[in-house]
Amino acid sequence: MTASHFAEHTARLTRELIHTLVSETDDARLAEHTAFIAEKLAAAAADPAAVTLDDPHPQRSHIEHDITPASSARNPIAPPMDIRWDGEESRCSLTLPLQYQGPPGRVHGGVVALMLDHVLGNAANSGDAPRAYTRYLNVQYDAATPVGEPLVVTGRVVRQEGRKRFLEGEVTCHGEVRVRAEGLWIEAKQ
């Protein structure tokens, strides 16, 4: 399911609303911005076919018909992940806004694990091999993953044994490893 321009536009406006809800402390400004977003939503809903996007989210997910909370352009809770294949690894560069915060100034650990699972899953499912699914994912948090700073999430297959694919990955910020992960993906039985 490729996101229509209308669906993606609506998801982007919803993300903007979510960001406003968690970042705006003045009710008058919150109300003003909420009304502004509501006007944009109403205009788009009045003529969905007329909605265009200058920069539509690329549909590069390893999940067909992606509606996941990890990378879908249709899902407003999904982090803005654009996963690419880079040599021998999957890679995603992104900056997470405030709505992904856990402890003050830090990305919630569950969101970090979600991103790693998705990027490693992309690496596990590159090429023509049968689909593989997460069996386990071990995450080691070495340092805080900051909100509002550029992050790089990478994942790679380190070995394969029959239906088993062993992966490693990390989250870096300004070149410093913040989080490491290793996991096992297993091909579905035929």
Automatic annotation (TrEMBL):
Start and end residues of each Thioesterase domain: 105-173
Presence of keyword Transmembrane: no
Chief site of localization: membrane
Catalysed reaction, written as an equation: hexadecanoyl-CoA + H2O = hexadecanoate + CoA + H(+); dodecanoyl-CoA + H2O = dodecanoate + CoA + H(+); (5Z,8Z,11Z,14Z)-eicosatetraenoyl-CoA + H2O = (5Z,8Z,11Z,14Z)-eicosatetraenoate + CoA + H(+); (9Z)-octadecenoyl-CoA + H2O = (9Z)-octadecenoate + CoA + H(+)
Pfam families, per database record: 4HBT
Subcellular location: Cell projection, Ruffle membrane; Cytoplasm; Membrane
Keyword Oxidoreductase among record annotations: no
Enzyme Commission number, as recorded: 3.1.2.2
Membrane association type: Peripheral membrane protein
Keywords assigned: Apoptosis, Cell membrane, Cell projection, Cytoplasm, Fatty acid metabolism, Hydrolase, Lipid metabolism, Membrane, Transit peptide
Family listed: Belongs to the THEM4/THEM5 thioesterase family.
Name listed for the protein in its UniProt record: Acyl-coenzyme A thioesterase THEM4
